[in-house]
Design brief:
single chain; 354 residues; mainly beta; four-stranded antiparallel beta sheet; 30 strands; 4% helix; globular; Lipoprotein
């Protein structure tokens, strides 16, 4: 029989052991000072950005002067102010995700072709092809170690519509999953879906039709990976920007038919909207990622010319900040440690909000 002291010690270890990773979104622990400083500069415009472990980031630039386009990945260390080239490749436009094993996947939008980028020294880029026609990919999500879900459109049969595909990394096989059909495809932003505690994924996004935003359309999709079911919400407006605040709530921004700014809180579990008082200052909705959930349960929104507003769900107000980014933010990225990177249009300067 073990001594009582050993039993108590074991119990203490088990009590302090980390819990299993939850699919829920949860704010981290970080206290923002509301300060902005420059951490470097990219040699080109940021096309896609990703958070890396340890408070680092990855930015992908694109040279679109000729096809196939040239992409280059840069690692960013805000603590040391280092921006270093990590890998380069040529392809058409695509979407990006960081896999569980640390590799980066870049999946071409209109082709069953992707690249696996290993950032370890020396960085390697491995092109891989799969076999599936009439598919467009707009969002990626890793469901398990070997399976990546591809969200986008299926054009088979002469008509387009939202669809979900499964990619087996071991075999490069793509399968179209049996989902409820929707005529509206998955769009952007955000670049990642919002995970719910019951395992479902939520996609608030913009849908485009001939270059115009669609109003009064199913603009939020719910996907259940376990049941392989896709459902959509009919909203009074198509959200142009969105940020998840906690496991149950998201902030949606958009415009009405008269282009008046709208702000809404979405109950992610119930699928219901509650209107908010929109800020007086016009927000920057030109670029994809100009609103981001902060690590304290609030959200950072960028106004024109680098202005910063912070939305608090407690006060339900957008508070202007004294600090500003160097220019309009093309992308906002919350780092794993809490601060936010802004990739601006001011000579591609990278600012950090902390």
């Amino acid at each position: 029989m073990r001594p009582l002291s050993s039993v108590l010690a074991l119990a203490a270890v088990l009590a302090c052991a980390p819990e299993a990773t939850s699919p829920c979104y949860a704010p981290a622990s970080y206290s923002y000072r509301g300060e902005v400083r420059s951490v470097g500069q990219l040699p080109g415009v940021a096309y896609r950005v990703l958070a890396l472990p340890g408070g680092r980031a990855l930015a992908i630039t694109a040279d679109l002067d000729q096809s196939p386009y040239r992409f280059e990945a840069f690692t960013i260390d805000p603590a040391g102010g280092a921006v270093e080239s990590a890998a380069a490749w040529q392809s058409d436009l695509g979407e990006v995700i960081r896999l569980d094993d640390g590799r980066i996947m870049f999946f071409e939008d209109f082709a069953c072709r992707y690249f696996l980028i290993d950032l370890d020294e020396p960085a390697t880029v491995t092109p891989r092809t799969c076999d599936f026609e009439d598919m467009r990919v707009t969002l990626l999500w890793q469901a398990s170690g070997a399976e990546v879900l591809l969200f986008g459109e299926y054009f088979g049969g002469g008509s387009g519509g939202g669809a979900v595909f499964s990619l087996d990394l071991a075999t490069d096989k793509v399968t179209r999953l049996a989902t409820q059909p929707t005529e509206h495809a998955f769009g952007t932003p955000p670049r990642e879906p919002f995970p719910l505690c019951d395992g479902r994924l939520v996609f608030p996004h913009t849908m485009l039709d001939g270059g115009d935003f669609i109003d009064d359309a199913p603009a939020v999709h719910y996907y259940d990976p376990a049941e392989k079911e896709l459902t959509s919400l009919d909203l009074s407006f198509a959200p142009e920007r969105a940020a998840q605040l906690d496991a149950k709530t998201a902030l949606l921004l958009g415009h009405d038919d008269d282009r008046a700014l709208l702000a809404q809180l979405l109950d992610l579990e119930a699928g219901t909207l509650r209107p908010l008082t929109a800020p007086d200052e016009e927000l920057d909705t030109m670029f994809d990622d100009t609103v981001v959930g902060l690590a304290d349960g609030t959200a950072l929104v960028t106004g024109e010319d680098g202005a910063i507003l912070v939305f608090s769900p407690e006060t339900e107000r957008f508070a202007p900040q004294s600090a500003r980014f160097a220019g309009a933010a093309r992308h906002l990225l919350r780092l794993s440690t809490g601060p936010v990177l802004a990739f601006t249009d001011a000579d591609n300067q990278i600012d950090i909000y902390e």
